[in-house]
């Protein structure tokens, strides 16, 4: 029982106490991880808002705007977790990789390609969010881990919601659908793979505050390779659920940057 004036301990997801000095020591690492997460959530909010502008069905418009609001809420939750550990969490949707992802989505918007938008946001971007957030949740301390776990579950619901729509679309013309996924795959997934590649060959990502955070991830029991592997596994699982041939999609993934 906590007595008056006693500081309540920070607990991990297993109920074990966490060393606050360790949390403070690793704050710059969590700051960069959170900055990437906030940027991704802000980009998703922008994407859903853009999607609402090409929807003809009022129910689809409302659904897209509801998703946009949810993503902004996720971004606010991540930013709040940063403040708890004494760091300001910025975001930069104009950063090199995130800008390319936004441009790919806007290409679908320009073509009024509702299905293409769902493939980019719900299958590709959300696969990376679900897998990476779930992995971070396992090692992040206290409420930070809880927040990553909660938002990972929310994002997985988005994917489930889109699956029925996309499976029905594929059933109409599997070859045409698979060709669309293939085209978007190399545009979007190449960028996502570069973000979690071993080295930042294109230069600074413009989201990390100073040097690249990836070499420091081991200090918090993470690694870029593990996050990349989990994300691609989640992506392949999503494509499998859509009905795309596994031997085909696996060949696509093996050609991505490492």
Number of domains: 1
Coarse shape: globular
Which structural class best describes the helix and strand composition? mainly alpha
> In CATH, what is the class?
Mainly Alpha
Number of helices: 9
Structure description:
- There is one protein chain.
- With 258 residues, the protein is mainly α.
- It has one domain: Ferritin.
- The protein is 70% helix and 2% strand.
- It has nine helices and two strands.
- The protein has a two-stranded antiparallel sheet.
- Strand 1 (10-11) and strand 2 form a beta hairpin.
- Helix 2 (27-52) packs antiparallel against helix 3 (58-84), helix 5 crosses helix 7 and helix 6 runs antiparallel to helix 7.
- The longest helix is centred in the middle third of the chain and has 31 residues, at 142-172.
Question: Summary?
Answer:
The protein is mostly helical. 70% of the residues lie in helices and 2% in strands. It has one domain: Ferritin, CATH 1.20.1260.10.
List keywords for this structure.
mainly alpha; Ferritin; two-stranded antiparallel ribbon; 9 helices; globular; about 260 residues; disordered N terminus
